[in-house]
Amino acid sequence: MGNRRIGDRNIGWWYFDDVYNYIYHQEQVITLYTAPPLWGLPSFSPACMKLETWFRMAKLDYQTDTAVNLEIAPKGKIPFIEYQGKLIGDSTLIIEMFKSEAGIDLDADLTPIERAISLAFRRMIKENIYWGEVYIRYQVPENWQVYREVLFNAMIGSVSAEECQAIVEEVYNIACTQLYNHGMGRHSDQEVYQIITADFQALSDFLADKPYFMGDKPTTVDATAYAYVGNLIKPPLGHPIVDYVLQLDNLCQHYERMHQQFFSDLGK
Ligand SMILES: N[C@@H](CCC(=O)N[C@@H](CS)C(=O)NCC(=O)O)C(=O)O
Question: How far is the CA of 89 from the centre of ligand 1 (A)?
């Protein structure tokens, strides 16, 4: 737009065009509200990391905002996006929206059977493995001492230390209640281990020696697995489940392959 400014007298159609294009471009850029990068991961929230990975795989133009305000989040959770002047929540629904409204489909080459398998694995990761990861962060006392610092540091700056402390305690209580209501929080440590390692073993067995879950090309399930495997093996949080997954070489190599391909700018 050169040196012209709103208020210039000489507003002709050429100037109107520039303003229109600028506003149009701003509306097309996606703002992704996400938890910040940490531990070498694009985000310490697996759902946020999955969505950002999918954006990169789809070559979408986006910017991130990590000053998360859950009060404006449509579902009260992250991730959510601002796109074309609207706030939209839930990573899966956002991906579906880009598919139906913009025709962006990373799974277009899959057969109906492959699509069904992909959906089942994605649901297993998001709806079951996720709770195993929440369990490891919140219900293992040594891990909670580490993770509470992470949450505190992510918020400090936007609110006072006292408020931060209070929010961290509230997040803890909400997470423990959610774990109990989901059911994962009612199991013994040994039972959680049994349930979650069986899921990771199934992922590893299905991946076998393929580079990506559905073959030679990365698809949506690869974004999901990358985010939830990464958020288990990279944080400095210990648990026998983590040890188990670290021994599933093909899953760990898949994490590295995805990281190298889509987030090499972050380093290791
Ligand atoms: N189904 C949602 C799940 C999102 C989710 O669980 N987000 C977590 C962070 S990973 C969150 O915001 N938790 C806050 C809360 O539950 O209050 C999606 O895929 O977007």
Answer: 10
